Amino acid sequence: MSYGRCVEFLVFLACVRATSTLTIRQEPRAVYNNQTGQFHVQLTCISHHGAPRVIWTNPRGQRLNTSSSDGGEFRLLLPNPVTSGLYDCCAFAPNTKPRCASVSVNNVDARFMLMEAEHSDRMNRMDAKFNKTNGEQSVLFHNLNGSYDESKALKQQMTTLQNESKALKQQMKTLQNESKALKQQMTTLQNEIKGLKQVEQQRETFQ
C-alpha cells in the first residue's frame, strides 16, 4: 500500500469516528477544469445527513468555495500549486452543530498526480489527432481510388468512342467507294445508251 493511500485510509477512519455523519477524501485522479484550463486535485466531502452547505478551510486557515455539489456531495478543486497540509470540511445542517472532518494532502504527491494527468491527457489528444489523420488519409485514398476508377471508366468510354468513330469513318469510306462505283456504272450506262441511240439513228438514215 502506498503512502498516499495509507494516509487517505487513516483519515477516512478518523473522519467516520469523529462525526459518523461526514466523509472526506482525496480523489485518486486529477480533474480537468474547463474554466482554468488546468488539472486539479479534487477533494470530496459527503454529508450523510444532507447538509445544504459546507465550508472548506485550507492549511493556511483560508476559506475556499465549493467547486460543485450534488445531493450532499461537495467537491473542491484545489488551486495550483497545491499547498501541503490538512484541509477541513465543515458541514452545516439545520438544528445541528457543525460537523468537521479533515484530510491530509501532500503537495509532492499532488504534483506527480497532476503531471500524470497532463501526460495522459496529452497522449489522448495525440491519439485522437493520429486517428483523425488516419481517417482523413483513408478518405483521401478512397477519393483517389474513386477518381482513378472514374478516370479509368472515362478512358474506356473514350476508347469506345474512338473505335466507333473509326468504324464510322470506314463505313463512310465504303459508302464513298460505292457511290463512286455507282457513278462509274451510271456513266457506262449513259455511254451505252448514247451508243445505242447513235446506232439507231444510223439505221434510220440508211433506210
Summarize the structure.
By secondary structure, this protein is α+β, with helices and mostly antiparallel strands.
SSE inventory with pairings:
Blueprint: H1 3-19, E1 22-26, E2 31-33, E3 38-40, E4 42-47, E5 53-57, E6 63-64, E7 68-70, E8 73-77, E9 85-92, E10 99-105, H2 107-206
Antiparallel strand pairs: 1-4, 2-3, 4-8, 5-6, 5-9, 7-8, 9-10
Signal peptide: 1-21
Keywords: Coiled coil, Signal
Coiled coil: 144-199
Question: Would you give an account of this structure?
Answer:
Keywords: Coiled coil, Signal. This is Ig-like domain-containing protein. The chain has 207 residues and is an alpha+beta fold. 57% of the residues lie in helices and 23% in strands. It has 2 helices and 10 strands, in the order H-E-E-E-E-E-E-E-E-E-E-H. The strands form 3 sheets. It has a 4-stranded antiparallel sheet with strand order 1-4-8-7. The longest helix is centred in the C-terminal third of the chain and has 100 residues. It is rod-shaped. The relative contact order is 0.10.
